Amino acid sequence: MSGKSHRGFFKKTKGPTGNAKRGGYQQPVQYEATSGEMNAGISERFKRMNFRGNGSGPSGSDQPNEMKPRNRLLEMFERETTEGQEGWRGLPDIPTPEEVMREDVELPTNNIDAPFESVDDYLSTHYDLLREDATAHLREGVSYLRADPHMQDNSEFCIYERVRIIGFTFASMGVCTRVSFSLARAGKRIPWASSKRLLPGTIVVLSSDEFETVKIATVAARPIAGLVQAGDPEVDLLFPARDNDLDTSRTYTMFESRSAYYEAYKHVLIGLQRMNEKNFPLARHLAMVDPDIGPPQYVLDNPEWDMSQVFDKVEDKAAVRRLNILEPWPETVGSEMDESQKEALSRILTKQVAIVQGPPGTGKTFTSVKALRAILSNMKEGDPPVVVACQTNHALDQLLGYVLEFEDNIIRLGGRTQDRDKIKKRTLYEMSKSSPIQIANSSFPRTKRSLENIKVDMKGILDAFKADFILPKHLVKRGLITDEQYQSFSIGNQDWVSAEEDASPEGDISSWLGRENIVPREQSFDKYLDYEDEDLEIERIQELEAEFLGLGEDEEFDDSLRGDYVSLSQRQDARDSIGVSQREIQEALKGDDVWAWPPHVRLAVYNHLRAKYLAMVMEEFRDRCEKYLNFSKDLAVAKREKQAYILESAKLIGMTTTGLAKYRTLVAATKPRVVMIEEAAESLEGPLIVGCTPSVQQLILVGDHRQLTGTCAVKDLERDPYFLCVSMFERLVNNDIGYTMLSAQRRMRPEIRQLIYPIYLDKLYDHESVVGRPSVKGMGDTNVFFYTHDQYEASNSGTSKVNEQESKMITEFCNYLVLNGNDPKRITILTFYAGQKFKIYGDLRDHQGLRDAQIRVATVDAYQGEENDIVILSLVRSNNEGKIGFLSVENRVCVALSRARLGFYIFGNAGLVTSASRLWWDVGQILSRDTPRIQDFIPVTCERHKNVVEIFNHYDWNGLTGGCRAECKERLPCGHECVLKCHPFDHSNYRCPADCGAMLPCGHRCSKQCFAPCACTEKCAEKRSLRPGLGYDEMPVNDIPQGVPYSSPDIRYQPQGVAYSSQDIRYQPTPVSSQSPAGVPIKAAGRGPSFARSANGMGLGLERKYTQVQTRPEKLIDFGDEEEEFQPRTVLPKGPPPPVPPAHTRPPIPPPHSRPNMGTAMGAATPQSPPQSWDRPAYVSPTFSSWELDTGRPNGISPPQVPSTGSWERQAAIEHWGDQVQYSTRGALPVGVKPQRYPVVNMPAANAGRSYGAVVTQPVTRMSEEAWPSLGPSSGGKQRQNGGGNVNWVTKASRRR
Fold first, then answer.
1. pTM of the full predicted structure?
2. Number of Cβ within a 10 Å radius of residue 1209
3. Three-state secondary structure of 206-245
């Protein structure tokens, strides 16, 4: 294929290009022409000043107040500009109005399988494609809003109306405009802390004329306090200096794209513009794809390295202390590294462009750290630092943590570190505070003074706009009215010149205009009940904001904009004047008595004068804004001079790939020669190009192009012929540039690793360390499983997908795993969709047993490079159209299948995904070999009895407390049997609920439950005393073992006269939290906040009262007046119960989705704050003579009949008396409701007629393995054929065992 990069059309016709200029900088200075002379001059000055060399510390010196010369190299890079150049190099940093208003744009094609024609062709191609990706949605938004100016918020754009200027902030980035706005077009409340709306760095487009003309601005800050305040929310915008506005009465409509975050593109685009063939030393290999790659120059200069710290297990240490790394390494070299890792290490140390592919679990990071240790341990004094860039702050912290184990002279640049110890101390911010370096003849003080002076001038201009109206003193100052007219204002109304009186239209100042000519400024006060769906975690939002604001190294995060703020908030405006000609206005202005003008003329004159005043001061204000911006940039350069010296003295500088572009000039000033990129295949090519600064001799790319790749905001740009998502890593590998692949995986047990065989084939093998790993507790030998279902997906308020039933099933499965002793921190739930992530997170938070469990829920894209013992994957997609969305992207699937160490469980519609994707078909084949591991149930295994329980839906978890459905019946120390179902936890903290019956000293028997302190409840003279060794009244919350949910005793229905005895009702067990031990009540009722709960955990049986307590009393001797203290919540009447009301008089039964959850598991945790409506009076069972208390049912709803059979399955069935509708917590449907259809998949012959637990209503043909692609939703219940196998959809009427 030809190496020519052809130009093509992304739209139909060619459009104009924007060539607005950036002011404030001179023409670029070529690096090669000046750096040698400049560096020589710096060296001479160092010699004359007799400075000591670089010290061991990061500051570069151990002397206090060390003076350093001006860093001319940094200044040269900072002031470099391409202003005035033609074509793509001359475009401004921010898109121009002309750019977003045009309809068509010309784009080049991306050459991914051949060399580019030239370096300039390579750079311009990536610049044009990246700029289009960043701005295309803005252009589309303008087009949509021009066609429909009243368009509402949608999945692509956020639209805000009634946008007004309310003030200005003099910030370090420039003069920022604060605006207020309305959320009327969103129609919802915004969870700003976790929303991507108006993130700092986002581009917004504003228009006051229905987008016939537009302005472009960047979001500078979005203080949460200003967004959630009463009234209109507020945000700070940064306009180009020449586009700032002062008209506070003008209203705009503003929109932003939900797709592209411009800050991620901006610095890459600037870096590409400044690069050329002369200052791009690796262009021969990166742009021209030259496979002849030799060693970097610094290795050729000194090839003998001390490798003793890397090969620490070799017996002959002398053999590796002076090892020529360019020659073959001795075979006797000992290390914990395998052969592929040693080969990769050799490539990293000896190639100018070194590429290492690391499949999941093969030790990419381990190999990178070994290479860094070799490079850092062989650095000499004065060598420049090594630059390391990672995709995320989390990955960067992890890598730097490993490096700190052997080298502490490192600095973290930019971003927000989550490490509050070692890494935080090594941030540039912390290092700058303690550094003794000072810059001789620094321009900082002079620039600071200039900035303050111009700030004073600008504040003077803004004074005229602080009041609601332009005051006469400002008009006369500009010569817009005569002195006589000004005196007339003063004589007629002395209060006119007082701005304080300007707030109310009733005041004297407004009397000249007339109250009829003044209107109050509209306030939106948007009030909505529903919240918009969340977008990101709060931590990720804060990372993005801090990166933009430059707050990454500060102690505390501050989302507000720093700088002096001038408020222009006004509450009233003059009306628009109508029917007065310019001639009448000019005639009126000839008169000296302004009070003699008619009211309608006064209004017209005022609006005329205000417009002229705005035009006069606007130009001055914009000029000063431009100067202020230039002084701000000069001040930033002066600040960075010290930072450059601090970075230069470090051995390693770490940052994200976003930071690599943003801080490019600062990094370039340290003259690095080695740049390492972790997860290089996950990044677009542009950020890695700009990381190749003029001094770089070696680029190390570590990653895996079979896992996640970069993504584009415009999906068309990911496809042919643009291929923007193809990384530099993948392009070079596909063009035969040499690389090394790591081959021994140490993460996954072999059964999990088999799932990614279709991706890596036989190139990946298991290290011996992964063989024989323990099984997941509670799952028997089922460590890999695919639970399939056909519950339909749904869409949330955005474009993301959710599957509610799948989320519930996963939540209950997590609860089961935790009950079996699996550490919640070792469980991760992954999903391909952000909507499902928040759904699962909400279900976990609402689950009584898991609300405090630290189970991580993440999207697959956010989890690359991470792992955990147990991973649960939610596929979400289930529809009749055969669409699987993100599940069809093999790179994402590869990541999802390879994160687990011990157990991996997939939840989704197996029929759909295997019929829509070849990769998923291969996964299905693997899971169907030998023992089938794809079923419509999950087999869980009881640890005690080894019974296997098949869970078909989330209702089937009811009754399980981590074991099987058998009764525990273990003998307790007190002699009673445990009344719980089978459970994996012991009885060490169990409190027996059986009747005590012990003989008391007074001669009466204790009528309390066994766990409670013994006390006489009869009227006797004996002092009631505690029975030694049995229970106590209170137990601290912190003493409760974690991870064991509360389970109330299994109280059966008893004959009349026992179920409502006074002792049973008066003293009631009381759990303390969702983490309290099973069967262990915490405190007697009547002390502290309380709520009601049914006795057997299913919303049935005796009412029980629970309280919370935080401390244990020192002495537990006497209960005091127990008759007063333990009062029943509901006083039951004496005598027989009232008659049963007729069925027709009872309220109708609610639909299943609105009924109380009658299937709460025995042992499920007790809610902490239930609604007060749960407290209900007693009701009469229609079939039993005993009284029963109901605490989980709304007012007026009759209770279900629960037969007392002792069988959990029978007891779980709920039948409403007198209605012709039957419900079952086992999943049966009401009479007359059509059942769901389940596919019969690869059913063993022994299970014929069972069909995934459903009642088979027609013959079923067993599927062959070749029939996998045919699995999927069917319509009409008809038989489908594919690949020789038949799929029969059968009716699921009830479960048969």
1. 0.73
2. 14
3. EECCCCCCCEEEEEEECCHHHHCCCCCCEEEEECCHHHCC
Residue 312 is classified by DSSP as T
| Residues 6 or more apart in contact with residue 1234 via CB below 8 angstroms | none
| Mean predicted confidence (pLDDT) in 1130-1151 | 47
557 falls in which pLDDT band (50, 70, 90)? low
Using alpha carbons only, give the angle 764, 769, 775 rounded to the nearest 5 degrees.
Answer: 100
Q: How far is CA 578 from the centre of its chain?
A: 53
Q: Where are the beta strands (DSSP E) in 582-642?
A: none
Q: What angle do CA 113, 387, 723 make, to 5 degrees?
A: 20
Q: Which two tokens stand for residue 538?
A: 């709060």
What average pLDDT does range 624-649 have in this prediction?
Answer: 92
Q: DSSP letters of 1042-1092? A: TT------------TTTTT-HHHHHS-----STTSPTT---S-TTSSSEEE
Strand partners, 859: 831
Q: How many residues does the chain have?
A: 1297
Q: How many CB atoms lie within 10 A of CB 846?
A: 11
Asked if the bond preceding 721 is cis, omega within 30° of 0, the reply is yes
CA distance 354 to 340: 14
CB 133 within 8 A of CB 724: yes
Secondary structure class of 1006 (helix, strand, coil): coil
In the 8-state DSSP scheme, what is residue 1245? G
Structure-token pair, residue 144: 């949509």
Contact 1005, 1016 (CB under 8 A): no
Question: Do residues 637 and 447 touch, judged by C-beta distance below 8 A?
Answer: no
Question: ∠256-257-259 over CA atoms, to 5°?
Answer: 150
Contacts of 8 (CB under 8 A, 6+ apart): 106, 107, 108, 109, 721
pLDDT in tens, 831-856: 999 899 999 999 999 998 898 899 99
Distance from C-alpha of 60 to C-alpha of 41, rounded to nearest angstrom: 19
Can you tell me the distance from the alpha carbon of 712 to that of 131, in angstroms, rounded to the nearest whole number?
11
Exposure of 1055 by Cβ count < 10 A (0-12 exposed, 13-18 middle, 19+ buried)?
exposed
CA distances from 314 to 303, 311, 317, 648 (A): 20, 6, 6, 34
Whether residue 537 has pLDDT greater than 70: no
**Residue 1095 pLDDT > 70, yes or no?**
no
- pLDDT value of position 140: 95
The percent of residues above 90 in pLDDT, for the chain, comes to 47
CA dihedral (797, 800, 805, 810) positive or negative: negative
List, as one string, the DSSP characters of 449-511. Answer: HHHHHHHHHHHHHHGGGSSSS--HHHHHHTTSS-HHHHHHHHHH-GGGG-GGGGG-TTSSGGG
Got the DSSP string for 136-191? HHHHHHHHHHHH-TTPPP-SSEEEEEEEEEEEEEEETTEEEEEEEEE-TTT-SB--
Give the C-alpha separation, 220 to 199, whole Å.
8
Of the candidates 190, 1163, 110, 1231, the one whose C-alpha atom is nearest the C-alpha of residue 689 is: 110
The predicted pLDDT at position 1201 comes to 38
Question: For 570-620, how does the pLDDT look when each residue is reduced to its tens digit (9 = 90+)?
Answer: 788 888 888 888 888 898 888 888 888 888 888 888 889 999 999 999 999
Distance of CA 897 to the CA centre of its chain: 21
The DSSP bridge pattern shows strands 572-574 and 518-520 to be antiparallel
Contact in structure between 1037 and 1109 (CB atoms under 8 Å): yes
Strand partners, 757: none
Beta bridge partners of 939: 950
Cβ contact 562:171 at 8 Å: yes
Place of tokens 């918009």: 532
d(CA 514, CA 414): 56
Among residues 983, 959, 914, 905, which one has the least CA distance to residue 937?
905
Q: What are phi and psi of 296, to 5 degrees?
A: -70, 160
